[in-house]
Amino acid sequence: MTSTASNQADSGLLDSRFSIGAAALAGISVLVALVFAWTGYQGEQLFVVGTEMNLINGMAGFMLAIFLAIVALIAAVYMEPGFDH
């Protein structure tokens, strides 16, 4: 076994502050994605911004927010702890 494989820290999803923050960002981003998709499907306005949404705008916002959620979740799971550990 190589030294890099044997010295890996077994950090989980909620073991460090970074992982907790990234998991929270992923969860919030999924909720925002669902709001974009539902608002675009219904053809309504966004809550705070007031922009009229259609299906294309809603799906574009949905895909952007889901992409952010996936990246944040991958970072939460696979990032090693920083210099403080």
3D architecture notes:
Keywords: Membrane, Transmembrane, Transmembrane helix. The chain crosses the membrane at residues 20-41, 53-79. The protein has one domain (12-78). The chain has three helices and no strands. The longest helix is centred in the middle third of the chain and has 26 residues, at 17-42. It is mostly helical.
Based on the model shown, name its key terms:
85 residues, mainly alpha, elongated
List the SSEs and their pairings.
Elements: H1 3-6, H2 17-42, H3 55-78
Helix pairs in contact: 2-3
Transmembrane segments: 20-41, 53-79
Keywords: Membrane, Transmembrane, Transmembrane helix
- Contiguous low-pLDDT stretches (5 residues minimum) are none
Largest sheet: none
- Mean pLDDT across the residues is 82
Give the SSE string.
Answer: HHH
> Which structural class matches the secondary elements?
mainly alpha
Q: For the CA atoms, what is the radius of gyration?
A: 18 Å
DSSP strand (E) fraction? under 5%
Q: Tell me the number of helical segments per DSSP (H or I, 4 or more residues long).
A: 3
Percent in helix? 55-70%
Transmembrane segments: 20-41, 53-79
Keywords: Membrane, Transmembrane, Transmembrane helix
Summed up:
The chain has about 80 residues and is mainly α. It has one domain (about 10-80).
